[in-house]
Amino acid sequence: MARKKDIEGLDDIMLFVNQFYGKVQKDDLIGEIFNNVILDWTPHLEKMYSFWNAVLFGVAGFVGNPFAKHAPLPISEEHFERWISLFYATIDENFEGEMAVNTKKRAETMALMFLSKLKAMRGGSSRVIV
């Protein structure tokens, strides 16, 4: 089997973002949450390309507050676990190397930070409050 390449730039980001959110849209746990909020996926995907390009390669262009977008959603720890699982699977299916590992670490750090902030907002609970 051929060795997978590492994440090297915007084309690779577009590949994993598209594949990842394709999985998210079809997922039985988190798909409905995303699909109820995102009616047109094109702008969301474009924003995610910019976000990951900024996070991984320091390329300016992302504007936004990701936590503010997630805070009102009916999400809990199990949703973050599924998100991470799908994200890791997408990266592992397509890439290997230092940047691939770094990308997964950064995604997990963000998920843990979001979950921690949500718990604090909800009085220390990870339960869904709707």
From TrEMBL:
Coiled coil: none annotated. Keywords: Heme, Iron, Metal-binding, Transport. It comes from the Bacteria. InterPro entries: Globin-like_sf, Globin/Proto, Hemoglobin_trunc. The keyword Transcription does not apply. GO terms for molecular function: heme binding; metal ion binding; oxygen binding. CDD domains: TrHb3_P (cd08916). This is Group III truncated hemoglobin.
